[in-house]
Amino acid sequence: MPELVFFSGTMDCGKSTLALQIEHNRSARGLQGVIFTRNDRAGEGKLSSRLGLVTDAVEVADGQDLYAYLVDRLSQGGRADYVIADEAQFLVPEQIDQLARVVDDLGLDVYAFGITTDFRTKLFPGSQRLVELADRIEVLQVEALCWCGARATHNARTVGGAMVVEGAQVVVGDVNQSADEVGYEVLCRRHHRRRMTAATARAAALSPDVLPVSST
Ligand SMILES: Nc1ncnc2c1ncn2[C@@H]1O[C@H](COP(=O)(O)OP(=O)(O)O)[C@@H](O)[C@H]1O
Ligand SMILES: Cc1cn([C@H]2C[C@H](O)[C@@H](COP(=O)(O)O)O2)c(=O)[nH]c1=O
Asked: Which residues are catalytic (predicted)?
């Protein structure tokens, strides 16, 4: 049975790498996939992983009907044996419904990859719809880690290393950004709640307030 699978996790946990591996393994066996993406850091029409691999993809436009795209392609004699959708959190709920229809009406497997929640721990609308509709939700096996060593479960947005909680839901960016840039850091829930990033934890550890008091 074809499936809609949602591979979810924090930023930097290997989602795009897995998408590229699925693509590689299927195309190595002569299958031809359609790869959708939106707002990849590598630029328009690209699916990229931090391991350095990148492939061409169809950049999803505002309001684009993904089901109609596949029907058009197939009716013009094109091939589509499966579908990959990376950065699926940036798709609108209607586009997730269209992907579910691709599974049910066209009989294609759809593999969607994305972060579930934003920097304020709120669901992205596209990810919410995937949770509602997916046949299966897979959490990536490679754990991204918080600075404290615990499994990272949440995404923080940072400016100069400090966590911010105000701003637009969508700001394309990366982890490990330089101090003055808007960036992201993955944290465990405890440290996300306390707004404690690696930089603020380091600063707190160095603060005279918490230095051990000498008995002499
Ligand atoms: N230099 C490196 N050596 C080995 N693994 C790396 C390196 N850089 C990144 N990675 C791996 O790549 C993962 C990020 O992969 P990526 O597919 O870009 O993540 P996502 O799409 O989930 O944001 C990291 O969690 C890490 O496991
Ligand atoms: C938390 C959060 C992230 N984003 C952006 C930042 C990146 O461009 C992507 C995630 O990409 P990745 O391959 O999973 O690292 O999403 C955002 O726009 N808003 C957020 O709250």
From this structure: 87 (proton acceptor)
Distances in whole angstroms, Cα of residue 80 to Cα of each of 65, 66, 67, 103:
16, 12, 12, 12
At the topology level, CATH places domain 144-207 in Wheat Germ Agglutinin (Isolectin 2); domain 1 (3.30.60)
22 Cβ inside 6 Å of ligand 1:
no
- The predicted complex's ipTM stands at 0.98
Which ligand gives the minimal distance to the CA of 15? 1
Domain ranges for the chain: 1-142, 144-207
CA distance 18 to 57: 15
Please give the number of the atom of ligand 1 that sits closest to the Cα of 115. 22
**Residues in binding site:** 9-16, 86-89
Helix (H) or strand (E) holding 170: none
Architecture of domain 1-142: 3-Layer(aba) Sandwich (3.40)
Annotated binding site for ATP: 9-16, 86-89
pLDDT score of 114: 98
pTM here? 0.94
